[in-house]
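Meet my pick.
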Amino acid sequence: MSREPTDADRYPTLSAAGLAMLQQMREHPAAPIFRNASGNRLLADEVTALRGYEREIICARFEWTPDQPPPWLQAHVTEVFAQVPYYRAQAMPAAFTDIAPVHRGDLAADIARFVPDPVPLERMINFRTTGTTGHPLVLPSHPVVAARYLAHHKRALQRFGITLAHGRGQMGVMLLGMQQRCFTYVSVTPTMDESGLAKINLHPDDWRHPEDRARYIDQMQPEVIAGDPISFAALLELPVRHRPQALLSVSMALSPGLRQALAARFGCAVLDLYSMNEAGPLAVYDDAAGGHVLLQPRMYVEILGADGAPLPPGETGEITLSGGFNFCLPLLRYRTGDRGALAMAGDTPMIVGLQGRRPVRYLTADQQWINNIDLTHALAALPLSRYVVHQHSDGRVALSLPPAELGYSAEATRCLRAVLRGQPVDVIALQREDKVLQYSSDVAGSSSPPR
């Protein structure tokens, strides 16, 4: 847009009750400093369609098993090869398994080639992901795609007997971050009668008074609190009295110890979701089933070996995706970089032994922990195609850059030393050409908050 969006742009169907909810969240005496503005941008007919989509997803059955692809797969392949420039430039393979897999680096190189031609650009949303693989990525989306996440979260909650009930005048969802720099905002959810949604940052710098963090959560009483292991570890340190219906851990692997500590403290279900920006919520961990049970009936999952060939059920390999609900980015044999094996949980496929992305914390020179996302923000202004940050046990940090980008060494070192508050930084050449593990550390307690 050529002007700053207004609330009418951000919330096209906003009622007086929805406006009051926004004001309550923004203007509460204990409210944080909301540094950004965002909204659902949903039109009235889209809200109606989304309610139907939620009802369909919650009860939809999977049409495939680990050894039998879904009946809709060939139609998906045909459509993608006809509409997506990256695939249209290739000949249609004779068999599905002949399609060359792609990975995050392919998307990062030219994301526009993966967007179907029929997708209208007027209301497309583009957002940058921080990632963990050395490929910062701009992903195409749409207000309807963003709103579809809720349907799959509801499916996950329903598996544990939880049905969301909050609506008008109540806060439905609170999203937590724990970063030096975090996108924070308020919104409302039209399909939940404009219940409130707030993204807050638990870092003390985003609050007028540090004690307001617990006070705001207790006053808002969100029905569900979502976050990652780092923000949930921070939540455990606050004197919060409110007990939500559920905690949803997204984007990073949740350790069993932290999950148990959260459940004991808040007396509610703690759901460990396997989710990623490229595909949305994929699965939820079910201890009784013995794995992460899949959530998207229109997402086909393969397990590939190092040579790219499909592995039989029960064998561990790379999780690879085809399908999905983002019509701006239909996936076709997308290698996630995560690992696991396929099995069945009743009539639903699941991933066993998921080895996904774990949160990594870095120790600053003054012995404070910071989120790996803070390092991403620190380097975001530099035109780096990829990089690796590793912290040695003595605190010293090694930054690996591609040989062609070593000219940015001095500036990158300055950026990292600033966020790490003076920790020594060494720059070395990155030798690997393929996917890399972007963040790692040898410092005790870096892989998960100590419990």
